[in-house]
């Protein structure tokens, strides 16, 4: 019984670490992997290095990014993507909404 009393604070600390650190990190990883899987051609993305460009080609582990007015192409690993700035679906739906407003 005394050994249980000495292990209780340690078990409590482990449980707190699990709830505060490991669960949110696993949720973040799942969300990031889902974002990488939903990556499509013509999506505008930002890399972890701060480069903003449009996705031109998607392969298994690599993507080709087109940046700037000179249309420079950069090949990088998918894990180099930080986030998607604008998706092609949202651009198409927003252009449809603008057309509908013009007709009214």
Task: Describe the fold and architecture.
By secondary structure, this protein is an alpha+beta fold. It folds into two domains: 1-37; 40-104, Roll (SH3 type barrels), CATH 2.30.30. Helix content is 50%, strand content 28%. It has helices at 2-37, 88-103; strands at residues 44-47, 52-58, 62-67, 72-77, 81-86. Strands 4-3-2-1-5 form a five-stranded antiparallel sheet. The model has no long low-confidence stretch (mean pLDDT 86).
Question: Gist?
Answer:
The protein has 104 residues and is of the alpha+beta class. It is built from two helices and five strands.
List the helices and strands and how they pair.
Layout (H helix, E strand, L loop, with lengths): L1 H36 L6 E4 L4 E7 L3 E6 L4 E6 L3 E6 L1 H16 L1
Antiparallel strand pairs: 1-2, 1-5, 2-3, 3-4
